[in-house]
Amino acid sequence: MHVNVEKTSGRPIVIAIRDDGVRLRVLTPDRKFSPPHDLIHFIVEKGMGLKRGFWGSIAAGAKFSSMEIIDGRQKRRANERSRQIIKANERSLSEAEAIVGAFQTALHSVAPHEEGLWRLLRTSGRKFEGSLAPATWAQLLSFKAEWGQLAVGEVVRLEWE
Questions:
Q1: Could you give the CA distance from residue 39 to residue 89 in angstroms, rounded to a whole number?
Q2: Count of CA atoms in the C-beta half-sphere (13 A) of 86
Q3: Using one digit for the tens of pLDDT, what is the confidence trace for 103-126?
């Protein structure tokens, strides 16, 4: 799956193109984070190996209420399969949200630093692979800088593996 994200003056346009050819628009939250919350999810989930979080669930066939199909043909019983994936991944989705929340809070602090991230991760009460956090933090800082340099109308392509 890959995700194309167009920067706009408001909410970004986020299009996920799954391996089955279905194209989905992800309607992002109103909050104006930079980079946007769903992109922080992408960077953190991929970097931390959270394969059953928001983006991993989408890649597996889940369709959340914040999404709409814009192109492609879904397989038979796709809605039933989506519900099954979301239910099976419920705990992982919750854990991913907490871990992403820690990264996002640290990223948007007055002086973002890895020490603050570690404190937030430890107090989150969630299990995570600590050895992956430093590289993920570096990727997130790099992506934040890249996103900040994008002009309105430019597109970033993210690959989910």
A1: 19
A2: 11
A3: 898 898 767 777 777 777 777 766
Provide DSSP, 64-124: -TTEEEEES-PPTTHHHHHHHHHHHTHHHHHHHHHHHHHHHHHHTSSS--HHHHHHHHHHT
pTM: 0.90
Instruction: Give the Cα separation of 11 and 28 in Å (integer).
Output: 7
23: Cα separation from own chain's centroid? 16
**Do the Cβ atoms of 12 and 5 come closer than 8 Å?**
yes
- 112: cis peptide before it, omega within 30°? no
Return the C-alpha torsion angle 140, 64, 14, 110, nearest 10. -30
**Residue 21 backbone phi and psi in degrees, to 5:** 90, -10
Domains of the chain by residue range:
2-159
